[in-house]
Amino acid sequence: MFYRKNLIAVTVVIFGLIMFIPNAQAQRQEFEVTQCYAATINPVHSSPDLGISSLDCKGITQSTHESKLFDNWTRHMVLVVRRMGGKHSWNGVTKAMAPDGEFIIWEFSGDSQAGSITKAVYGTGKWKDVKGELKAKRITSKPIAPNTDQWCEKAVGWIELPAK
To answer: What are the angstrom distances between the C-alpha of 26 and each of 87, 123, 136, 142?
Structure first.
């Protein structure tokens, strides 16, 4: 009888302690941003049927979400664009840098109908081992000079930091 009461007491204490052990879970956050870019276009080939260019783009991100995640981050993007008929498709990478100098590298692909799908592939500092995805679509575009492009896009996505 005494042994059984002690066993029950120890079991209750163990379960009570387990409840207070921190649960290490990844931190997932949703975000929404407007990203604006200025690009230099480097034509590789241009004909009525096919156009191929590389673009070197610089830009900035403004958060439109209450969390302000990615607000005032700068961006450097390089991509290759292919035009066939009236349709464009592209692939590239972006370095998105926080005001403190830490950054995330994103890979993306897309087309003029669907927009871009972007995945986080590398991060520094608190962004090390980051996972994430965003979908972006142009909301405005207005080239100002030959072989340049300037545009803004709306992007929504999620980011997940590993549990520490």
So the answer is: 39, 15, 24, 40
Per the CB < 8 A criterion, the answer to whether 107 and 90 are in contact is: no
Q: Which CATH number goes with the domain that contains 59?
A: 2.40.350
Instruction: State the pTM of this model.
Output: 0.81
Give the model confidence (pLDDT) of 8-31 as tens digits: 655 555 555 455 444 456 689 999
Cα 36 to Cα 33: distance, rounded to the nearest angstrom: 10
Those residues with Cβ within 8 angstroms of residue 7's Cβ, 6 or more apart along the chain or in another chain: none
Q: Total structural domains in the chain?
A: 1
Give the tens place of pLDDT for each residue, 98-136.
Answer: 999 999 999 999 999 999 999 999 999 999 999 999 999
CA max distance for the chain? 92
In a domain, 1, yes or no: no
Q: Which domain holds residue 63?
A: 28-161
